[in-house]
Design brief:
The complex is a heterodimer of chains A (300) and B (385). Chain A has 300 residues and is an alpha/beta fold. Chain A is built from twelve helices and ten strands. In chain A, β1, α3 and β2 form a beta-alpha-beta unit. Chain A is globular.
Chain lengths: 300, 385
């Protein structure tokens, strides 16, 4: 049994994710970091659907899915039960951005405020992919989705992404981090910290979605890396509400990231939308300013 | 030990004696006294449970789902709007076959907002897979919690249970209660030790999704479990009766029904009023009896058909209404149980939103049923409509 474990992933092969799915890769890394003494509580979403079509399951750890919006509350109950039974398993809650930013926000806020001991991993692919690419509170500015389509009167999603890490840090979460599948060692370290830090911890992982964002499945990692390199996604850690570690980059212009994905195609075709691209560049600049993303090449 | 106490206090005490490991609840009138008492028990070391003060009722039941799946006995209490907010989790808890017990202090649903009693809230969830017990008085409301855990946790059932009692009418009323001791309850109700739970040593997946190739059988199994619950209730009801002298083994209970010409069918606290009215009608020479439904799910169709086979007419009282249908849920289901019989069944929707039901109302309904008038609201204020 122990030998078998070594050759198997805890989030095992045979699931039905798309080729090049960023979320499936993230789940593998998260579970590698979490280890066998883990109970996973999942929200409804792509991950739940592609990993557990009855009677098959990709999970080699105990796993429970209840509803779309209640994973944090279910985890609260699991945690209470383990405490009462004197058990040692760690709890990892998993939800997509819809389950986290939108529909599960009340349960999530309640569980963080109460201070349950679990790690919440948000797989952020920036829209409702399971139902067919509808916008969520995590969808970035100008992304075209099926409910925020770009058209003659619209450049797509009109609002910037909700700042969930700040919201959860404001709950007094001892550890909040963002991570990327382009930096797997960093991601696993963060997950491990979230699991070993007592109290409710949050890791938001950017997981590019080839189907929803419109790119070839072999580009997933490259695009995740570009998100970091353009400053549109900041990788950082917050301990007790203070940013303690940031992934610094020599920043590239945002259009290098935007051009790779069909969800931003309308910013370049049929006509280049300089004003919109400039607005997005300004967002990356603000991220850089806020988190100190830029590597200073020359000392002043 | 006999004591005079409020319904909510007695129920909270019963829950404490059931030794739930996780209690998760959100305050809502008229359930609050129960969850306040439980918090007090935990704060003072009288109940060794994790008490989760959740952010809303959906979270309350969701936390019970997590706790129960992890192998702990879990408890919640709610009513009305709170139960409505739990709708999705109710179906989910039953589908995952988790033996959670929830006390329902029955209350009307808005709009318009009403904090007063009827039974619309739990009746609206009759298709959710939960067993539904309805108490007539506070002794029964208290005792049914012991029976509920015993039945829910049996491998032949493995379904959650609503223990329903009328909000305010029972929850806030003081009555003499014979409360069991911890020793007595421990003898009746063993610790919860499920065969399957979330456990890193033996990983299983809970709450997977099922394609059309599998879903139908899941629902069939739940329906079978509901039907098996009838015998399980009878068995554990008898065991309770043997140990404590109070018998809840029957799903329905007759009162002066044997030679009755008119049978009233009802659930909950109104049955006390009905019994008093029957006594007075009997004194006046009218042959009226009551069939009280204690267990609404599983629905005792055969028991009802048998109990009512000899009467001349049936008058069903419903503190709920399926708007746009012929009446309330009880009348509909009693009529279904009586299908093929020539006994006329008339329904009366009354008492909604806390409107009082008095003895004279029961007598008036019996008169209406004798005239063949029914399937209507009873007690409407004509000046308002």
């Amino acid at each position: 049994m122990a030998e078998k474990k070594k050759t198997c992933e805890l989030f095992d092969c045979g699931h039905r994710a798309c080729g090049g799915c960023g979320e499936a890769l993230a789940a593998r890394l998260v579970m590698n970091a979490a280890g066998t003494n883990t109970i996973v509580v999942a929200a409804t979403g792509c991950m739940e659907v592609f990993s557990t079509p009855y009677p098959e399951t990709a999970w080699k750890v105990p796993w429970i899915h209840s509803l779309f919006e209640n994973a944090s509350a279910v985890a609260s109950g699991v945690e209470a039960a383990l405490k009462k039974q004197g058990r040692t398993e760690k709890i990892v809650v998993m939800g997509g951005d819809g389950a986290t930013f939108d529909i599960g926000m009340i349960c999530l806020s309640g569980a963080f405020e109460r201070g349950h001991d679990f790690a919440y991993i948000c797989y952020d692919n920036e829209a409702y992919m399971n139902t067919g690419i509808q916008r969520s509170g995590a969808t970035p500015y100008d992304a075209s989705t099926t409910t925020s389509p770009a058209g003659s009167q619209s450049f797509g999603n009109r609002r910037p992404k909700k700042d969930m890490p700040a919201i959860l840090a404001a709950h007094g979460a001892p550890y909040v981090a963002t991570a990327s599948i382009a930096y797997p060692a960093d991601l696993m370290q963060k997950v491990e910290k979230a699991i070993t830090t007592k109290g409710p911890c949050y890791v938001q992982v950017q997981v590019p979605c080839c189907t929803g964002w419109g790119f070839e499945g072999d580009q997933t990692i490259a695009i995740a890396k570009l998100a970091i390199e353009t400053g549109l996604w900041a990788n950082f850690e917050m301990v007790d509400g203070k940013v303690t570690k940031v992934k610094k980059v020599v920043r590239k212009p945002v259009e290098e990231y935007l051009k790779t994905q069909k969800r931003f195609r309308h910013l370049f075709k049929p006509k280049r939308q300089d004003a919109e691209i400039a607005l997005i560049q300004a967002m990356a600049d603000r991220n850089a300013e806020k988190y100190g993303l830029d590597i200073k090449l020359k000392k002043e | 030990m006999m004591e005079i106490t409020e319904g909510s206090h007695a129920i909270a005490d019963a829950v404490r004696l059931c030794r739930p490991q996780v209690v998760s609840a959100y305050p809502i009138t008229p359930q609050t006294h129960i969850v306040e008492d439980l918090a007090d028990f935990v704060a003072n070391g009288r109940l060794d449970a994790e008490y989760i003060t959740v952010d809303n009722e959906l979270s309350a039941l969701s936390a019970c789902i997590g706790a129960s799946a992890a192998g702990s006995r879990a408890y919640s209490a709610t009513t009305s709007q709170g139960l409505a907010l739990m709708f999705e989790a109710c179906f989910n808890a039953a589908g995952m076959r988790l033996p959670i017990i929830m006390s329902i202090a029955n209350r009307a649903l808005g709009a318009p907002l009403s904090i007063w009693n009827d039974q619309q809230d739990s009746i609206a969830l009759r298709d959710s897979g939960w067993l539904q017990f309805y108490a007539e008085d506070n002794q029964e409301a208290t005792d049914l919690h012991f029976l509920a855990y015993k039945v829910a946790e049996d491998v032949k059932v493995q379904l959650p249970v609503f223990v329903c009692f009328d909000g305010f009418i029972l929850s806030h009323t003081y009555e003499p209660i014979d409360m069991l001791s911890q020793e007595q309850v421990d003898k009746y109700l063993p610790n919860y030790n499920p065969a399957e739970k979330l456990d890193a040593k033996d990983p299983i997946s809970f709450g997977m999704y099922a394609t059309p190739d599998y879903y139908l059988e899941f629902r069939y199994e739940m329906d079978q479990a509901q039907k098996r619950a009838k015998d399980v209730i009878a068995t554990y009801g008898k065991e309770f009766a043997t140990m404590f002298n109070r018998d809840y083994s029957a799903l329905v209970e007759g009162y002066r029904l044997d030679d009755a010409e008119t049978a009233i069918v009802a659930m909950g606290s109104v049955c006390g009023t009905v019994k008093d009215a029957i006594d007075e009608m009997r004194d006046a020479g009218k042959k009226v009896g009551l069939l009280r439904i204690r267990v609404f799910r599983p629905f005792p169709s055969e028991e009802i058909a048998k109990a009512l086979s000899g009467v001349q007419r049936v008058a069903v009282l419903d503190k709920n209404i399926s708007l746009g249908a012929r009446g309330g849920a009880t009348a509909t289901e009693v009529r279904d149980a009586m299908y093929g019989s020539t006994v006329p069944v008339k329904g009366y929707v009354l008492g909604l939103g806390g409107r009082d039901i008095r003895k004279k109302d029961i007598k008036e309904i019996v008169s209406l049923s004798e005239k063949g008038i029914g399937d209507q609201f009873y007690g409407l204020r004509k000046e308002l409509i």
